[in-house]
C-alpha cells in the first residue's frame, strides 16, 4: 500500500503496456504494425513521449491556420514515457508521472487507468504522436 500523503515525484510505473495487437477503435493492429510504429516514431521528440490526461490531442489549428496534430494543452500534461521497447509482442515503457493529483489517483488504484497511444500514419504504416492516460483505453488494459 502506498502512503498517499508521501508520494514522491516522478511517480514511476515500470514496464507498462503502451500499444498491443488487437482492435483499437475498431481498426485491427498486428504485431507488424506495432513494430513499424516503434521503428518509425521519433522517440527523441519529447512531444511524442509525453503523457496527457485523456485524449484532448486531436487535430487543431494554430492562429495562422496551420494544422497541429497530437498536441494537447499544458494543463493536460501528466508526465512522459521512457525506456520504450518491444517486449512479448507489445510496445512497453516506463510511465513517469509528474502531476501530483494524477500520481495520487494512480497510486491509489492504477488498475482504473490505461495508457492509450495517439497516432497517425506515414507511408501507410502507423506511428505514435503521443500518449494519454485514460479510463477506457482502446486497447487491452494494463497488467
Describe what you observe in this structure.
The protein is mostly beta strands and 143 residues long. It has one domain (11-134). The chain has two helices and ten strands. It has helices spanning 31-40, 100-108; strands at 11-20, 22-24, 27-29, 50-53, 59-61, 67-69, 77-87, 90-97, 114-122, 125-134. It has a six-stranded mixed beta sheet with strand order 1-8-7-4-10-9. A two-stranded antiparallel ribbon has the order 2-3. It has a two-stranded antiparallel ribbon with strand order 5-6. Strand 7 (77-87) and strand 8 form a beta hairpin. It is globular and about 50 Å long.
In short:
Helix content is 13%, strand content 45%. The chain is mostly beta strands and 143 residues long.
The gross shape turns out to be globular
Give me the count of strands: 10
Instruction: State the helical fraction.
Output: 10-25%
Q: What would the average pLDDT be, to the nearest integer? A: 84
Radius of gyration: 15 Å
The unreliable regions are none
User: Taking strands numbered 1, 2, ... along the chain, how are they ordered across the largest sheet?
Assistant: 1-8-7-4-10-9
Percentage of β-strand residues: 35-45%
Tell me the distance between the termini. Answer: 18 Å
For the biggest sheet, the summary is: 6 strands, mixed
What labels describe this entry?
143 residues; mainly beta; six-stranded mixed sheet; two-stranded antiparallel sheet; globular
Amino acid at each position: 500500500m502506498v502512503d498517499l500523503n508521501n508520494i514522491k515525484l516522478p511517480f514511476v510505473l515500470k514496464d507498462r503496456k503502451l500499444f498491443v495487437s488487437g482492435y483499437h477503435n475498431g481498426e485491427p493492429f498486428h504485431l507488424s504494425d506495432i513494430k513499424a510504429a516503434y521503428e518509425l516514431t521519433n522517440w527523441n521528440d519529447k512531444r511524442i513521449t509525453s503523457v496527457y490526461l485523456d485524449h484532448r490531442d486531436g487535430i487543431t489549428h494554430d492562429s495562422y491556420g496551420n494544422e497541429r496534430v497530437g498536441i494537447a494543452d499544458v494543463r493536460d500534461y501528466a508526465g512522459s514515457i521512457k525506456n520504450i521497447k518491444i517486449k512479448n509482442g507489445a510496445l512497453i515503457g516506463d510511465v513517469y508521472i509528474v502531476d501530483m493529483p494524477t500520481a495520487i489517483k494512480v497510486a491509489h488504484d492504477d488498475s482504473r487507468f490505461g495508457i492509450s497511444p495517439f497516432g497517425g500514419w506515414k507511408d501507410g504504416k502507423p506511428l505514435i504522436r503521443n500518449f494519454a492516460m485514460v479510463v477506457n483505453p482502446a486497447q487491452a488494459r494494463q497488467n
